[in-house]
User: Which sequence fits this backbone?
């Protein structure tokens, strides 16, 4: 079963607007990561947030994590047409050595119109 | 520095045929993974390896076999392909994220397999 569920499934915005994607998960985690996938390509790592962190920033990306609600959000500010892609959250569970076995959500398809 | 390279990129098989997907990484990563991606399902882990000569089952291992004879290569085999194995397959390798005790994955471009 999938660990993460993402919301919304699809998001369509205009260039310059902010985009917010949400991720919920079921079990305790060591960290949560966000990946981007351009059409027909592999996934690319964007940002990682550890379970003891509440917020991380990287350029135009802002990630929050609420472990009490088992949820995370990814905010992309001042979006560009080049941000059009699918975005996935991925969790690394606690308990033993995970060896980096991430569990992925179903993804949010973001379309940014010029 | 090529990263993670998958071959072939596309393949069409008939039910019952066998094939092998090859993954090669040049980053000296210890861990490697095979995922499949299906519409609406996200990515699901098939098998993984924590080092040369080791393999382990992931979430959906049935119908697949893997081998890691060399550190840089991870092979995924289908002995008798079924239409349910039509999917996009991604190989990944991982390194430890500095100071986080976490592994970040580097993915290949994917291999699209169709089983008729």
Assistant:
């Amino acid at each position: 079963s999938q660990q993460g569920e993402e919301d919304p499934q699809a998001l369509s915005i205009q260039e310059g607007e902010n985009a917010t994607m949400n991720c919920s998960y079921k079990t305790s985690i060591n960290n949560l990561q966000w990946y981007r996938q351009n059409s027909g390509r592999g996934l690319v790592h964007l940002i990682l947030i550890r379970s003891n962190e509440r917020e991380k920033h990287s350029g135009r990306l802002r990630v929050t994590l609420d472990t009490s609600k088992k949820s995370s959000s990814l905010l992309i500010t001042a979006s560009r047409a080049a941000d059009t892609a699918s975005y996935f959250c991925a969790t690394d569970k606690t308990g033993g050595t995970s060896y980096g076995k991430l569990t992925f959500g179903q993804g949010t398809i973001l379309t940014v119109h010029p | 520095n090529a990263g993670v390279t998958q071959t072939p990129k596309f393949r069409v098989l008939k039910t019952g045929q066998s094939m092998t997907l090859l993954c090669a990484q040049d980053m000296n990563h210890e861990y490697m993974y095979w995922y499949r991606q299906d519409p609406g399902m996200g990515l699901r882990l098939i098998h993984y390896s924590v080092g040369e000569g080791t393999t382990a089952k992931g979430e959906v291992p049935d119908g697949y076999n893997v081998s890691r004879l060399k550190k840089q290569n991870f092979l995924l085999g289908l002995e008798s392909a079924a239409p349910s194995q039509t999917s996009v397959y991604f190989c990944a390798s991982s390194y430890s994220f500095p100071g986080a005790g976490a592994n970040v994955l580097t993915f290949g471009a994917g291999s699209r397999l169709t089983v008729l």
